[in-house]
Design a protein that fits this description.
- The protein is mainly α and about 600 residues long.
- It contains 27 helices and no strands.
- The longest helix has 26 residues.
- The protein starts with 8 loop residues before the first helix and ends in a 33-residue tail after the last helix.
- The N terminus and C terminus are likely disordered.
- This is MAU2 chromatid cohesion factor homolog.
Length: about 600
């Protein structure tokens, strides 16, 4: 995003002042600006004034600039896209020495218009040509490189995007812009993380760290670079499931945001025109930091903290969306909703989760890009919801649909792991379970996520438990505990402890069972995880009863009754909602008109 004005009348007035333009031109331009900035804007009259410029047979410069202005106004304020395109194409064709900025700006805007019309094959050569001839204009050369790299990224051509960002970084170095060089390199690092090219990420982030620390410029720009760098570091650790390792970076990131919030935006333009960029507005950075904090809290099992930061971020987003139409805001919103939905399912708030799933569906109908990028995640969330209400056939259908929509290694592994849990609970799908476990084991060998590898051991332990192979189950679960304790994966730890406790109870080792179940209950209460609390309280009841501890058994029975009632009420509320019908959606856009339910259609069963 550029902090210099794009196609603004103010910029045009400044430019024309050096050319001693005719008074008629300044008058028409003044009227056009007045109509454009009226409340509400009078776009028809603004366009009428700009078109009148051509009646005076203006110079080539004024003619080219007016085509750009007309194209910009029509594109941004009307539905007459074809006329906007005509004017922009005329502006692009006007190649005037020492006046190339108009041509480059028109090319940038026209490529956006082409993409909106699904004419990507027209946008790319247009940008390439503009990049080729803009090397003597640092600001536009960098901006056009960023734009083409973004276009390749949207097309999932990350290799071409990385190449362009590398070209941009080297160009910025040559023209003496270490700030923009860092922006190019950090953007490339983000794409390399998406491609899981971790061997290339480490040296690049090390280089970026040096550049950021050594650059002394605008304080807000410096802090924004530091935020960008730390967001990549935090994301890298979270992708790897290294929850404990991420804490120092996350703390630094939160301190950076506090620093930025105290700084004032300087209107002083940098001396180097290649530095006329900023990564994100301060308000967007705040939302992003909330988002990565939520991601960390979810993986670590601090669900109340995750809910608190999600609420803060969503409130901030609602305020921003009233004033800002940036497409990154709905993306932030969807990712936040995905995380809070998982949180609700764990904490026993399925009805609320369904309503938030419905919000995601509505966002999909507003943006095909969001649907394309997040449909697999939504099917996965619906699969998790189906498990929570014991609709196993629907869960299988949702996870199967999700697998067909993603090539993302970590998401694919997460889906397969949960699909295996569905087959295990159904009890008669041993061959499918074994097939999935073989697949997930092979993928986990390549997977960079410590968390997913630990979860794979848990699922193998769960399968062995259901098959009655208790010693094998204990071996897998102890491995899960070892891995989850190493990175503070609290929810996996709680699940492993309660399952180990169940195994020891079945084997008659009540003392060892208690040593597992009591800390599992404490940890589940801290998270809080309603299913593990239900399971743990049932085990504690049976354990104390077997040991003759009548008072403790009664207390555990009361806890179990309380958790059962809470889950039952939530179960009935969720299954009665119209949104419950989404469990039957497996293809195309999700339905938005849903018939209300007459009542719950599924039974409540515990993990036991």
């Amino acid at each position: 995003e550029s902090n210099c004005s794009t196609a603004s009348f103010k910029t045009i007035k400044m430019a024309t002042a050096t050319e001693a333009p005719e008074s008629w031109y300044l008058a028409l331009l003044g009227f056009a600006e007045h109509f454009r900035t009226s409340s509400p804007p009078k776009i028809r009259l603004c366009v009428h004034c700009l078109k009148a410029v051509f009646q005076f047979k203006p110079t080539q410069r004024i003619e080219a600039r007016t085509h750009l202005q007309l194209g910009s106004v029509l594109y941004q304020h009307t539905k007459n896209i074809e006329l906007a395109r005509t004017h922009l194409e005329k502006a692009v064709r006007r190649s005037i020495p020492q006046f190339e900025d108009v041509q480059f700006e028109a090319a940038s805007l026209l490529s956006e218009l082409y993409c909106q019309q699904n004419l990507v094959d027209s946008a790319k050569p247009l940008l390439r040509k503009a990049i080729q001839i803009s090397q003597q204009t640092p600001y536009w050369h960098c901006r056009l490189l960023f734009q083409l790299a973004q276009l390749h990224t949207l097309e999932k051509d990350l290799v071409s995007a990385c190449d362009l960002l590398g070209v941009g970084a080297e160009y910025a170095r040559v023209v003496g812009s270490e700030y923009t060089r860092a922006l190019f390199l950090l953007s490339k690092g983000m794409l390399l993380l998406m491609e899981r090219k971790l061997s290339e990420v480490h040296p690049l982030l090390t280089l970026c760290s040096t550049i950021v620390e050594n650059w002394h410029g605008n304080p807000i720009q410096k802090e924004s670079l530091r935020v960008f760098f730390l967001v990549l570091q935090v994301t890298h650790y979270l992708d790897a499931g290294q929850i404990k390792s991420v804490k120092p970076c996350l703390k630094q990131l939160q301190q950076c945001i506090q620093t930025i919030s105290t700084l004032h935006d300087d209107e002083i333009l940098p001396s180097n025109s290649a530095d006329l960029f900023h990564w994100l507005p301060k308000e967007h950075m705040c939302v992003l930091v909330y988002l990565v904090t939520v991601m960390h809290s979810m993986q670590a099992g601090y669900l109340e903290k995750a809910q608190k930061y999600t609420d803060k971020a969503l409130m901030q987003l609602e305020k921003l969306k009233m004033l800002d139409s940036s497409p990154i805001l709905p993306t932030f919103q969807v990712i936040l909703l995905e995380h809070i939905i998982m949180c609700r399912l764990v904490t026993g708030h399925k009805a609320t989760a369904l309503q938030e799933i419905s919000q995601v569906c509505q966002l999909f109908h507003q943006s095909s890009r969001l649907f394309t990028n997040h449909a697999a995640q939504l099917h996965t969330l619906l699969g998790l919801y189906c498990i929570s209400v014991n609709c196993m056939d629907n869960a299988e259908a949702q996870f199967t649909a999700a697998l067909q929509m993603t090539t993302h290694q970590e998401l694919w592994t997460f889906i397969v792991t949960n699909l295996a849990s569905v087959y295990i609970r159904e009890g008669n799908r041993q061959q499918e379970v074994l097939s999935l476990l073989r697949l997930s084991t092979n993928v986990c060998l390549l997977c960079s996520s410590h968390c997913l590898r630990a979860a794979a051991f848990y699922i193998r332990g769960l399968f062995s438990f259901f098959e009655g192979r208790y010693n094998e189950a204990k071996r897998f679960l102890r491995e899960t505990l070892k891995m989850s304790n190493a990175e503070d994966l609290n929810r996996l730890t709680a699940c492993s402890l309660v399952l180990l406790g169940h195994i020891f109870f079945v084997l008659g080792n009540h003392r060892e069972s208690s040593n597992m179940v009591v800390p599992a209950m404490q940890l589940a209460s801290k998270i809080p995880d309603m299913s593990v609390q239900l399971w743990s309280s049932a085990l504690l009841k049976d354990l104390n009863k077997s040991c003759g501890n009548t008072i403790d058994a009664h207390e555990a029975a009361q806890m179990h009754q309380t958790f059962s009632q809470q889950l039952l009420q939530d179960h009935m509320a969720a299954c009665s909602l119209p949104e419950h019908n989404l469990i039957g959606w497996t293809e195309g856009l999700p339905p938005v008109q849903l018939q209300p339910q007459n009542g719950p259609t599924t039974g409540l069963t515990s993990l036991l």
